[in-house]
Amino acid sequence: MEQQPGGGETHVEQVIWHGDPDGELTVGIARRDGDVVTIRLRDGDRIVADVRLRSGPKRRPAPHDLLRTELGPGATCTRTFVVTEDATTDHVPGAVPVLSTPSLIAFLEDTAADVLRPGFGPATASLGTWIGVRHTGPAQAGDHVLVTAVLAEVRGRRYLFDVEATVGGRPIGDGQVAQTLISLA
Predict the structure, then answer these.
(1) Where is the Fluoroacetyl-CoA-specific thioesterase-like domain (predicted)?
(2) What fold is seen in the domain 76-183?
(3) Which end of the chain is more exposed for a tag (fewer CB within 10 A), N or C?
């Protein structure tokens, strides 16, 4: 943390990593909103990372009783999904149908939710509330997609996950998704 004139603090509130740089990085302010500034790192036209800085004390996560057990960073789940015909898209004429991006996102979000589900308290569910993913490679009908979700950050009822999808060891997607716990009561 860095002290500001007048005794305030500035801290990194969130880092969203979009991908490794290949060349020289440029840095600029992407957004200002009150006490929050988002700094964007770019490699040419490609976004590499967004870093959100907040002035003032760190926000403390609000306690909740929606999970029977506490989960912390590092909690993980790995699942395998078989690509079905209804999970593909054929929007490229003459090309073989491949896994659609919405279906890939559903696989990533469902795996992240599976980290949380075993600990749900009574009348608890989770919703996907944020996605930042890249769909980097194809998967065809019948392929087995291995998806891993690793809990990266907990803030109150919001759980941020690093996610990755591969087919036969070949990456087809990665990024982050957030799940937020809700009460059904």
Answers:
(1) 83-183
(2) Thiol Ester Dehydrase; Chain A (3.10.129)
(3) C
Distance CA 122, CA 163 (A): 27
Percentage of the residues of the chain whose pLDDT score is greater than 90 = 55
Q: Quick check: helix, strand or coil at residue 109?
A: helix
Sheet order of strands, 46-55 included:
2-3, 9-17, 46-55, 36-43, 26-33
Contacts of 93 (CB under 8 A, 6+ apart): none
Query: What does the pLDDT read at residue 29?
Result: 87
Cβ of 165: how many Cβ atoms within 10 Å?
27
| Tens of pLDDT, residues 56-110 | 877 655 567 898 888 889 999 999 999 999 999 988 888 899 999 999 999 999 9
Residue 160 CB-density burial (10 A; 0-12 exposed, 13-18 middle, 19+ buried):
buried
CA distance linking residue 136 with residue 86, whole number of Å? 20
Q: Domain locations in the chain?
A: 2-55, 76-183
